[in-house]
Amino acid sequence: MKLQWILFFSICFVGFCTPVQGLFSGTSLQDYVDGLVDAAKFKIQGMLSLNDTTVGRMWSYFKSKYGRVYSSMDDEKQRLRIFRDHLKYVLESNLNTLRTYELELNEFADWTMDEFNTLKKGLTISTELRRRLSDSESDDSYDEDSVRRSLDKLYKHHYHQRRLKRSMIYRRRHQTHLDRRGFTDWLWNLINTGIGNSSSSSSSNNNNNAGSSTSSFDWRNQNMVSSVKNQLNCGCCYAFATAAVLETLYAVKTKSSTVTEFSPQQIADCSSNGNNGCNGGNFAPSLRYISGQGGKIATLASYPYAGKKQSCQTSGLNQVNLGNIQYGAIPEGDEKAMAKALVDYGPIFIGLDADSQLFMFYKSGVLSISGCPTRRQDMDHAMVAVGYGYDSALKLPYWIIKNSWAEKWGEKGYLRLVKDKSNMCGVASMAYYAKLT
C-alpha cells in the first residue's frame, strides 16, 4: 500500500510539471472513445447505449487532453451538449458500412459549426462576384434562398469572432491552472473508475516537370511541398494557401533541393486591398500585394506566424524575389483542366465549401459528400491541391489536398477528396494556377 501511494504522488508530481496535451499524446480522443463504446450495441440503441457516466468519462478526457476551461457551469453544460451531438454524429457516421472515409472526434468537439467556420476558414468571394450576386435578382435563374445563404456565410462570422475573443482570452489566462487541476482530476477519475490581376494564355511553362496528366501525380514525391502549417484561430486560410503555392513554384524555378517557406503572416498583415487579415481573403488580392512589392515575399523565419493580425512589418525582413507572377483561373468545374494545370504548372489554390461536420472531423479515406454545394459563391475555405491518385481498394480517384489545420487533422494534415465526381464541394469552382517568370 505504501508503495502505491509513493507511485501515486510521483505521478502527480510529473503531472504538475508536464503540459496536459503531452500526457495524452499517445492516445487520441477517438481511440479513447472507441474503447468505451460497444459498437454492436450502439448500432442498435444509439446514444441510449452510452450512459451519463460513460459520456462523462469521455468529456473529462477531452477537457484534460485539450486543456479546456469554461467561464461558468452553464457554459460547460452547453459545451457538453455540443460534444454529445458531435459524438453521436461521428459514431453513427463510422458505423456506415458504405462510407469511403473515417471520422474522429478532435479538438473541435466542443465547437459549434459557426465557431468552426469563423476560426478555421477564411475564404471570401471577390467584390466583383459579390456585385454579380446582387445584380442576379433580375436573372430568371435567381435563387433567393441560396443567395441569402451565400451572403450569410460571408458576414455571420464577425459576430462570433467578437464573442469568441473574450472566451479565448479567458482560456489562455486559466491554462496554467487547468494544466495542474485537469491532470489531478483526470488521475483521480482514472484510479476510481479503473481505466490574378492578370492571366497568361501562353502555352509555354517554366514549371513543367511531368508533361501530360496520368492516373496519379504528387508534388510531394518531388520534395517540392513544405510542411503542413496551423492557422490556429485566425480566418486566414487564403494566406497559407497562397504561400504554399508560391513555395513550390519558387523551388521548381530555382531547381532547389529544399523548399523555402514563405510568410502567411505577411500576407494577412499587409495585403489589405481585397483581404481582411483574420476575417478572410482570396488568392488574387494576395498575389496583387506581392506583385506590388516587386514580386518579393518574406520568409517564414523572418516574419513568423502569430495567429492574429498584426501591424504590417516592413523592416528587418529576409525577402525572396519571386520574379514576375502570373496567374489564371481554372474554367469553373473543369477537373480535367485542373489536373493538367496541376501537373504543368504546380499546386493549385482551391476553394471548397467545407461547411460540414465531415470536414470538421475528417480522419482518413476518400471524402465524398452527397449534395455538397459547388457554386463559387458558396466556397468558404482555401486549401491547396498538390496531386491526385486512385484508391484501388475503394475504386475511387481522389485529389490530394493540403490543409492548414495542423498535422493532427486528417491524413497528417492532408485531405483526400473524391475526384471527377460532379466537382465535389466545388473543388474546381474557385481554382487558380500560377507561374513565375
Automatic annotation (TrEMBL):
Peptidase C1A papain C-terminal domain sequence ranges: 213-435
Region spans: Disordered: 197-216
Keywords: Disulfide bond, Hydrolase, Protease, Signal, Thiol protease, Zymogen
GO MF term list: cysteine-type peptidase activity
Single biological process term from Gene Ontology: proteolysis
Gene3D superfamilies: 1.10.287.2250, Cysteine proteinases
Domain Cathepsin propeptide inhibitor, residue spans: 59-116
InterPro entries in UniProt: Papain-like_cys_pep_sf, Pept_asp_AS, Pept_cys_AS, Pept_his_AS, Peptidase_C1A, Peptidase_C1A_C, Peptidase_C1A_papain-like, Prot_inhib_I29
Signal peptide residues on this chain, from the entry's feature table: 1-22
Similarity annotation: Belongs to the peptidase C1 family.
PANTHER family (UniProt xref): CYSTEINE PROTEASE FAMILY C1-RELATED
Name of protein: Uncharacterized protein
Organism: Adineta ricciae (Rotifer)
